[in-house]
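Marked as duplicate of an earlier ticket. Keeping the data here for the record.
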Amino acid sequence: MMARFTILAPTAILGYGFPSTSFEQGLSHNPDLIAVDAGSADPGPFYLGSGKSFTDAAAVRRDLAPLLKAAIERNIPLVIGSAGGAGAAPHLQWTLAIVKELAQKLQLSFRMASINADIEREQVLKAMQEERISALSGARALTEETLSTTDAVVAQMGVEPIQKALQARCQVIIAGRAYDPAVFAALPMMQGFDKGLALHLGKILECAAIAATPGSGADCALGVLEQDRFVLRALNSERSFTATSVAAHTLYEKAHPTLLPGPGGHLDLSRVQFEELDEGSVAVSGSHFVPATRYSLKLEGARRIGYRSMCIAGIRDPIMIASIDSILPQVRSAVSELCTREIEQGSLHFHIYGKDAVMGPQEPHRDRVAHELGVLIDAVAPDPSAAATLCSVTRSTLLHYGYEGRIATAGNLAFPFSPSDLEAGEVYEFSVYHLMETTDPLSFFPVVIEDIAHDHA
């Protein structure tokens, strides 16, 4: 067994960028693996439902070129997870096209695996009927009607499909939706390194230098797995890892401070220790993986619920600001009377920036009075025309609404843009956010292997 295993994480998400000096510094440590996360559910359901990437093609191409070149020239595996942002079939194919384009441009030849993460609705329905589906916290119970209107469903793969591709001697692996730490942990686990340590290291490295101080999602980080610990090293002289920064990132995106669930089990971090070393590096030990009695995969699905039009405006009148909580329900009621039945099927939201737009009812300082407010009118309806009408009627009603104490005879709102109403296109919601039990974590993730050879012409 290897004494240590070194992983280079170039950036928090493929397309976010990284300094070439940091990357070259990482390569000087002779990494055994280059791995990068390429997606997330954080940007919301639109990208999964629409099949579009939230990263820019030119930026992904810019990041991928040096990664591919270094991996092939140095014979280092390159593993990319959650391709194209949401990791569904369109995102995977989008990423594969960029990889193949770069292979020709850079004159690179290699064996590549692509791993699809799409789940057919019939497979989910069968699992529902066999009572193998359970809702995650905050999600509603899944119904056949909801499933039938869902546009795309993916599952977060664990390490097993990636290991299958590695066993087939694939040097470049492009995976669909994947558990973030899996792309970093799959290969060292095959080499015999502790699963708990490998997954915990993967959780840190999937955000690259964000866990350093000062943090950055557009910079590289290095992780070195040893037998009983792992060490994190910054690759930029402007950054360093500290016990506090690594501990803080260990708490990142977790509902429980010491438990991190994933495919096939969870990480128990209750005995983790953080030790600061020299040169801004940190050693982490005590991470423990607890296998689940039943293997579960997280499902993510999105469906289209309509179209959005929105309007941004400012309020400066202190009388209106003081009464905004009573004015908006009155405006909503007036709009409801003005609109047709078709438009009433839509939804209308007011986001009041400067009051409680970020946290809503959970905002602890809702009674603080601002000197100005920003209003975002968010109108969603079944078709673009209805959404535009709902937004327009709401904007004009609020603009001229005669609230108690009003002195001005002109409009109540200041508009930064003309036209004031903006069409934002399709709107999606997460319709599937559930766990699915399975006895075979490989069966849902087909591995397709290709030998990529550049043209010599």
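See parent ticket for discussion. The longest strand covers residues 296-315.
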